[in-house]
Amino acid sequence: MIPVSEALAKVTALATLMPTETVPLTEANGRVLAEPVVATRNQPPFPASAMDGYAVRQADVRSGATLDVVGEAPAGRAWTGTIASGQALRIFTGAVVPEGADMVVIQENVTRDGARITITDADSHGDNIRPAGGDFKPGDRIEAPRRLAPGDVALAAAMNVPLLRVRRRPVVAILATGDELVMPGEAPRADQIIASNSFGLKGMLEAAGAEVRMLPIARDTESSLRTAFELATGADLVVTIGGASVGDHDLVGKVAGDLGMERSFYKVAMRPGKPLMAGRLNGAAMVGLPGNPVSAMVCGTIFLLPLVRAMLGLDAGPAPRTQATLACDIAANGPREHYMRAIVENGVVTPFRRQDSALLTVLASANALLVRPVADGPRSAGETVEVVAI
Ligand SMILES: Nc1nc2c(c(=O)[nH]1)N[C@H]1C(S)=C(S)[C@@H](COP(=O)(O)OP(=O)(O)OC[C@H]3O[C@@H](n4cnc5c(N)ncnc54)[C@H](O)[C@@H]3O)O[C@H]1N2
Ligand code: MOO
């Protein structure tokens, strides 16, 4: 058994950086930017009105002052004259503020009578003008690498960059194994259960930016496993589920080895997740997850997410931890780092009483993993511990 930190380093060392591809803005959200986006224009490109009202000279703005309305400027239709003293231009949000004007008086602060306005309230918070280039200027950048959030996509669009260079999504083949498994919706025999892990992992990996291929469930025979591994050809990462332990039917390690897997490690000092394996199989990274549903999902959080991040060129450090205050006493930990399913509320963490790695109801109710270091002593309510959000 190797420590979790060492296993993580070995897993992320299996990553190959994905090549880049070009996508339109409509498909860019959530993708990882591979090359910076560089603005070639000012935004706004002109001094723009921030309000509906009247563009005027600030020096003319006094309560009771009357001004002549000399024209109108809606957004998208500039008025090309110059505002002189005593004049006002009817203006709308987003329109070009004309030469001469250095303030927009909001329409709520004037009364209008034909072509004249009277200022009823001269108190203004600011000039209501957005200066040219106030948002961004030529040369301003969205740096890479970066996972594009909706705000980034909007910014790239505003920069008039319609196509973005992003990392190709790593293709992950998920291979569930076991004679006891049937797919959701099928009719299980009395001695069978429903395959669940692949679905949880698919969601987790897709949210991380991967493209997931679900392979048919492999039976606990060497030939079925071999066929399933063949179907994984072309994937950047092959994730197997189950068959990783020491039983007579735990054949994943053997078959992968027969097919040429160069094993990086097998077994991690971690709970749940001890029988984790990883290596390289025909040019792809391979991670063998334990079958217990919670073990598979916890290993997904701790190892697969950093691996996918590394493949996308992002920081591949360990899952971020924060501190929380223990709500109750907990017993000493053993020789494996323990990732206890827990609920964090207002900075206080409560681990679930039942920690069996088969309990999906507990995992689904949890929002955090309470991390117990190897050989950590008993801890009392009120002490500070580390948690990973899930
Ligand atoms: N003698 C020992 N037995 C076990 C050990 C050990 O050290 N010595 N380790 C235990 C630990 S810890 C784990 S974790 C499991 C992992 O075993 P496997 O990876 O070989 O997984 P399976 O035996 O195939 O399955 C375990 C469990 O999970 C269910 N399962 C499997 N795949 C799925 C799936 N896709 N969806 C839902 N459920 C799944 C399976 O039916 C079993 O109940 O080994 C312990 N044993
Ligand atoms: O290590 Mo196993 O993954 O406890 O269930």
Automatic annotation (TrEMBL):
Q: Which GO terms describe its molecular function?
A: metal ion binding; molybdopterin molybdotransferase activity
Would you name any one GO CC term? cytosol
> Which residues does the annotated region (Disordered) include?
121-141
Asked whether the UniProt record includes Chloroplast among its keywords, one would answer: no
Q: Which UniProt keywords apply?
A: Magnesium, Metal-binding, Molybdenum, Molybdenum cofactor biosynthesis, Transferase
Catalytic activity from the UniProt record: adenylyl-molybdopterin + molybdate = Mo-molybdopterin + AMP + H(+)
Q: What Pfam families does this protein's entry cite?
A: MoCF_biosynth (PF00994), MoeA_C (PF03454), MoeA_N (PF03453)
User: SMART domains from the xrefs?
Assistant: MoCF_biosynth (SM00852)
Output one GO BP term. Answer: Mo-molybdopterin cofactor biosynthetic process
Q: Which cofactor does it need?
A: Mg(2+)
Q: EC number(s) of the enzyme?
A: 2.10.1.1
Whether Transferase counts among this entry's keywords is: yes
Q: Which organism is it from?
A: Aliiruegeria haliotis
This chain's function reads:
Catalyzes the insertion of molybdate into adenylated molybdopterin with the concomitant release of AMP.
What name goes with this protein? Molybdopterin molybdenumtransferase
Name the protein family. Belongs to the MoeA family.
Ranges where the MoaB/Mog domain occurs: 173-310
Q: InterPro entries in the record, alphabetically?
A: MoaB/Mog-like_dom_sf, MoaB/Mog_dom, MoeA-like, MoeA_C_domain_IV, MoeA_C_domain_IV_sf, MoeA_linker/N, MoeA_linker/N_sf
Pathway field of the UniProt record reads:
Cofactor biosynthesis; molybdopterin biosynthesis
